[in-house]
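Lab notebook, bench 4. Still working through the backlog of constructs that have no structural model yet. Next entry is a single chain of 351 residues. Request: give me the structure tokens for it.
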Amino acid sequence: MEKSMERENIIKKLESELNGVEKLSDLANVKAMFLGREGIVTKLSSKMKEIPNEEKREYGKFLNEIKNEVEEKINFKFQELSDKELKEKLIKDAIDITLPGRKIKKGSLHPLTRITEEFEDLFVSMGYTVYSGVEVESDENCFQKLNIPKGHPARDAQDTFYLKDEFENFLLRSQTSTAQARAMEENTDKGPIRIICPGKVYRRDEDATHSHQFMQIEGLVIDHDVSMADLKGTLELFCKKILGEKTKVRFRPSFFPFTEPSVEVDVTCFKCGGRGCNLCKDTGWIEVLGAGMVHPNVLEMGGYDSKKYQGFAFGTGIDRFAMFKYAIPDIRTIYANDIRFLSQFDRKDVD
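Model written out:
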């Protein structure tokens, strides 16, 4: 009778305490009050040593029953509070799915990437291989092996970025023509070559039509019986495919140290069709690239017998073609990384 009353009192006290609990943190205090080291149920267990041996079994059963009941009620309250807090959190963090979603900005290819891929697709279809050159180059590959020795006046036209601690030894390449020297050197069997090399080049120059960093693409063909006619046919096909079938091509004599003979290549202005306008300065023609037959000295320095092999090379600015195709007035706009500028080109290509 005494144990029954004691058990009833403990349960009533527990229920009273649980009724006042609103948070899980408060429930932890109630649990400590009954089951902690100094808790009510724990103190009952400490009385076991005072109980006569013949009553210990019955007293132990009483302790287990009351402990289980206390734990059950506390666990039930814990689950109740957990569910309540979860519901409140879900209500607070609810997302209104009826609201319109945020528009995801659509990316597009950079105009330089578009032009480069267009060039590569065309030349690969003609049997060329895309060759990856390096941007930090030696003076030997950038100039000397291209028939531009130290002190040559052609160096004055290219104000070059030399590396501070490697002056006159290494530099940021000023032209993709360096790929010629590397490709010939790496081709150990000295067989035919047909490559294009697109990539960045660097010069100390910056204004509306020039940049200290810009893109070029270089082409090189070396084989038996290669002639100027092969060069002209290749460049006419290239210009017509990129700029339109109605494009006319004009070749003018010029000078480059690494080609002989050398030519400048002009095309009819694609804005006025050759009639004359502000873009072509009323001439009807626009210069687009330089080319020529590979100089025998360059072939010999590359390990080729110039009496058995001939070749031609050409190079042009990818930025220049991008400015022509997309009517970009300032080259610096291409590198400004302005999303308003870059997002136009999907529409332009579709048009």
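Notes after review: DSSP finds 13 helices and nine strands in the chain. The chain has a mean pLDDT of 83. Flag for follow-up if needed.
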